[in-house]
Specification:
Elements: H1 3-25, E1 48-52, E2 67-70, E3 75-79, E4 85-89, E5 100-102, E6 107-109, E7 116-117, E8 123-125, E9 134-140, E10 143-147
Antiparallel strand pairs: 1-10, 2-3, 3-4, 4-9, 5-6, 6-7, 7-8, 9-10
Bound molecules: FE2/S2 (inorganic) cluster.
FE2/S2 (inorganic) cluster binds next to loops.
Length: about 150
């Protein structure tokens, strides 16, 4: 091998190693976010279901201030003290812990780290900084429809 060929081959190999190393250290996979981005796992799901509030397990919605967590759809449905039915994603946008409804404070609350949300799902206090997804409700007799 001639000296020129040797230098050319060694030079290319060294450049390849440098470029490969830079690409790995500059990769986005190294910069994972420290908390979830606010996804509630419902965003791509078509939500539209109806429940009878006089039958189990929904009877808590028969009382003002009561609430029910639908773990299949990750939705919390609540009846406010003024008898309004509201529904939002039940997974806190901070770290996906299930929220409760606090009727006396008229808010959703996550006991994990203290985030609170308005009845619309908007953030009242953090650490969560992304709103809970809000769903529509419609009551017809004893049947409550929850939909996007
Ligand atoms: S998981 Fe809800 S406040 Fe942290």
């Amino acid at each position: 091998m001639e000296r020129k060929d040797f230098i050319e081959k060694v030079g290319l190999s060294a450049a390849s190693v440098l470029i490969f190393g830079c690409m790995q250290s500059c990769s986005k996979s190294d910069s994972a976010p420290s908390q979830p981005t606010g996804s509630n796992n419902n965003t791509n799901k078509a939500i539209d279901f109806t429940i009878n509030i006089t039958t189990n397990p929904y009877t808590s919605l028969n009382t003002a201030g009561g609430f029910y967590v639908d773990k299949t759809n990750n939705i919390i449905i609540a009846r406010t003290l003024t008898n309004e039915y509201i529904a939002v994603s039940s997974l806190c946008t901070h770290q996906q812990v299930t929220v409760d409804f606090q009727a006396n404070n008229n808010r959703f609350y996550c006991s994990a780290h203290g985030s609170a949300f308005f009845t619309t799902g908007a953030v009242l206090t953090g650490p969560a900084n992304v709103a809970l997804k809000q769903y529509k409700t419609a009551l017809s007799g004893n049947n409550l429809r929850v939909y996007a």
